[in-house]
Amino acid sequence: GVKLLLHGLCSNTTVKSLDLKGNNLRTVGAEALGKLLRQNKSIRSLTLEWNSLGMWEEGFSFFCQGLGANNFLQRLDLRNNQINHQGAGELAVALTQNASLQELDLRWNNIGLLGGRALLNCLHRNKSLKRLELAGNNVPGDILKAVEQALDHNQDREAILSKAQNQVYILNKEVLNLKDEKNKQFLDFMDTVDKQKEEKAKSERVSAARVSQLQEALDEQHSIMNSLKAKLQMTEAALALSEQKVHNLGELLNTMKQEQTSVAECHFRELQQQKQESADREGKLLHDLSAASEKNLLLRNQVDELERKCKVQQDQLFQVKQDLATTTAELKLRAVQAEERLEMEKRRFKQSLEDMESLRVKEVDHMTQHIEASERSMQDRIQRLETIRISLEEELSQVKAAALAERGQAEEELLKARSQARLEEQQRLEHLEEKLRLMTESRDEAQNCCLKQKEMVAEAQARAKQLSLHADGLRRRLEELQQDLNSKEEEKVTEVNKVKVELQEQIGHLEAERTAQDGLREKIAALERQLKALSNNHREALLDKEGEISLLLEKLRMKEAEISRVREEEAQRASFLQNAIMAYVQGPPFGTHSSRK
């Protein structure tokens, strides 16, 4: 029946505890138990009291082999099973292979001296066994003390390992938290940098758009001035042509007058000489006079046409003046629009500054709340520790001599806990102070960025003012040009030269603005370098913290080396004790031993 039951439990995954006390298990049962221990992975406690398993050597050896192959059983009860020193040796071999068993009860068996030695030797290799009961087995007291010491060492080692694991786990958590916080801070910093870059790009775009608009306006003014210059040149050419025509006509009139006078003199001279031919010649002269009169009429018509052309040119000049007035009005409207845009940008900057200040106030409030919550939690922990200390003192007052040692241990633990709590509080306070410092630094950086943006706005305003002044100057110059156009024609050349000089100055101003934009680009490059330097500093800090973690790991390794050294020393002491016991057992009789003493 036990064989069938254990065969069914081999594949079970829910049973945690199995009690087979007083069931008269034999070789078949012991073999089934060995198979169960090899295959089952869920049983943690096994009770086999009053089963006489030690009487069946083959079955018990198979059971010990299964125990050595199991890595899940934690408690084993083998009381009153008639286990002798051979069975104890097989159990010792199994315990050297097992790494999960923590409690083993072997009371009221027949282990004896040899079995006790075997179990003591196996404890040097087994590091998981914490409790081993050997009462009622005829084991000497020295071996029992050595076994207790080995178990105490195992318990101390496991406590130290658990503490070290807890410390490593806490340190890993803190490192992960620090990494997360640093990553968050770095991401926030990168977000702020990206925002600043976007804002700078926007401001650059706006400034570029403004510069392009102003350059377009200047190009339009240049085109207008070029068109005016072309019109002036055309009018000058037309006037020169008209003057040349008038001069030619005057010369023709003078020649005609000279010819008339010469003809009259010839007529007077020839009248005396040739009276007969006077009639014919007078007819010819009348004909010539009619032709001259016709020529005079034609010349007068030409003069009238030239006067009409002059009037048309004056009308064109009036239209040009009107065009100049319209262009000045358009420039005024554009200046008003530019001022409105500047005011809108000022309002946006003010709103962004107010948002930044509100975010900073919120973050400071959140940090203060977090600090208060941490202080409350630490006070609660201290109160709990004090309540635990009071309860321990009440229990220690009831105990007599043995309680004094426990009281000292409890006080040491309380001091350690308080020191750990103080250290944790100090670490948290330092961490919070670092956070506050970082927040203040970020606030200062934001303020510096705001100041820089204000300076940029002031520079843009100054540029707008300069541009408005340039526009006013251009208006004044246009008015001067209009006055100069109405003035004499001799001053036109000088005014054109002045306009050329002014255009060269404007080109110089535009080049100065371009150099200012280059300076802004250099500032942006410097800011990007600073960002790279900050990222390098963050990386160096991370590397430093990783170095600290490596130092802590090396300290843990050193502690493990010390623990191994202590174990080796204890093993040497146990070997010395074993050799002494062997020498004592194999020595001479009682009388000679006393004489040697």
From TrEMBL:
SUPFAM superfamilies assigned = RNI-like
- Answer whether the UniProt record assigns the keyword DNA repair to this protein: no
Cellular localisation = Cytoplasm, Cytoskeleton, Microtubule organizing center, Centrosome
- What keywords are assigned to this protein? Coiled coil, Cytoplasm, Cytoskeleton
The cross-references to InterPro entries, in alphabetical order and at most eight, read: Centro_Cilium_Assembly, Leu-rich_rpt, LRR_dom_sf
Transmembrane feature ranges? none
Q: Which Gene3D superfamilies match?
A: Ribonuclease Inhibitor (3.80.10.10)
Query: What is the protein name given in its UniProt record?
Result: Leucine-rich repeat-containing protein 45
Protein species of origin: Manacus vitellinus
